[in-house]
Amino acid sequence: DAKTTQPNSMESNEEEPVHLPCNHSTISGTDYIHWYRQLPSQGPEYVIHGLTSNVNNRMASLAIAEDRKSSTLILHRATLRDAAVYYCILNGGSQGNLIFGKGTKLSVKP
Amino acid sequence: GAGVSQSPSNKVTEKGKDVELRCDPISGHTALYWYRQSLGQGLEFLIYFQGNSAPDKSGLPSDRFSAERTGGSVSTLTIQRTQQEDSAVYLCASSLAADFSYEQYFGPGTRLTVT
Predict the structure, then answer these.
(1) How many whole angstroms separate alpha carbon A21 and alpha carbon B46?
(2) Average pLDDT over residues B41-54
(3) Strand pairing class (B19-24; B43-50)
(4) Of B42, B93, B108, Cβ closest to residue A42
């Protein structure tokens, strides 16, 4: 399974943009890049995913490097509700399951 | 629309008892996954269903764990003779298909405490 590397923690101020990095130098050509987040005491929540092109949805944007060895999740205006652990996942196991690492714990200051 | 639901939300049981945890996936989702998250630990994959069948049960932590899915919908995770190390949050997720081009939607989880 291709591995991802994320910072353990990051801090942001409310209403400012947040760029969460993820390195995945061993990514294969068919690996999708998924981002999920887990708010305190809740199940994981899908954020966004992409393959090669940058992606935008109502929650966030995903910027994928041209060589696909890294990606960045962009929250355009952080809110207190965005405080969570963010997981960058490359596909997963042979059964379609997601393989979660330790993720990045995002703190948002008012 | 309705998301993934799980019941009960909390379950406290005595060591040695059997427990059943239920998952109702999103209607129309053919793939269903069970994960668990122990206190302070990451999310661990347990088992997956495509339709009613579970092609591979090797992710289950012991033979005390079993799971079934009926009618391509509701799934039940059963833990027999519970042990204290089984205490965790058990999460269910569903997806349109078992394909990484689709996202997984998670339920709120069942918090199991074995005393």
Answers:
(1) 28
(2) 87
(3) unpaired
(4) B108
